[in-house]
Write the structure tokens for this entry.
Amino acid sequence: MAAAERLAKRHGMTIEDAAAGGMQAPRPEYDRQSPNVAQERELARVVHLMDYQIQLDKARIAEATERAVERGLKLEPHPTKTAPKPIRNWQTSRSQQRMNPHRHAHVLLTETSMPIEEIANLTGLDVYKIAGMKLKLREEGKGRKAG
């Protein structure tokens, strides 16, 4: 009671005025010119409804799952997520599709100046086959003389 008297005295009222409701806290005045308040209220309402709809959907799905299990559905456990493979920046990814070794050697011979040994290592062909291809390419470049 003493606290109520102090509180009423602090606000300039009697205990009877405070008990009757006395002064009410003023409501915050909104700028009626600003459409932001209405937009914020509408957005809050929509978000609340979305959350509510999500909760209803989850409850509906859980109930349907329970009924299906009662009817005999065997639930499989959710697959566990495996960790993604680490990305190796130091090595470029390679395609699983491989070029024909003879065609690959031909391209390397015509477009690069790589040594025959390296081309043989890359393509898996014999050094002598690569050398023969290189000689044939040389003859094609000169052109054959008639007669």
